[in-house]
Amino acid sequence: MIAFDAKACDALLALSPGEAVALAGELTPRLWQTEGKAPRVALDLLAHAVLSTYAVCRRRRAAGPD
């Protein structure tokens, strides 16, 4: 994953292993071959926005009770 926006980078670095996350950005499929010439597919994501469950909970708390 590639992120250039400082907020997106900070959000990605703050994630814990296994944490759910939603990403918005440009997805580009890539084809490559292993040394044994086996074809493989990869996906590159240029992340513009990151939303984690932690961020959602924090925003809800900041908004106050319903």
Main sheet strand line-up: 1-3-2
Shape: elongated
Number of strands: 3
List the helices and strands in order.
Answer: EHEEH
The class by helix and strand makeup works out as alpha+beta
What is the terminal separation in angstroms?
36 Å
Strand count, sense and closure of the main sheet? 3 strands, mixed
Portion of residues in beta strands equals 35-45%
Helix proportion of residues, in percent? 25-40%
Overall pLDDT metric: 83
Tally of helical runs: 2
Detailed description of the structure:
- Strands 1-3-2 form a three-stranded mixed beta sheet.
- The protein starts with a strand and ends with a helix.
- It has one domain.
- It is an alpha+beta fold and 66 residues long.
- 29% of the residues lie in helices and 44% in strands.
Set down the secondary structure blueprint.
Elements lengths: L1 E2 L2 H8 L7 E13 L5 E14 H11 L3
Parallel strand pairs: 1-3
Antiparallel strand pairs: 2-3
Main attributes?
single chain, alpha+beta, 3-stranded mixed beta sheet, elongated
Quick recap:
Helices cover 29% and strands 44% of the residues. The protein is α+β, with helices and mostly antiparallel strands and 66 residues long.
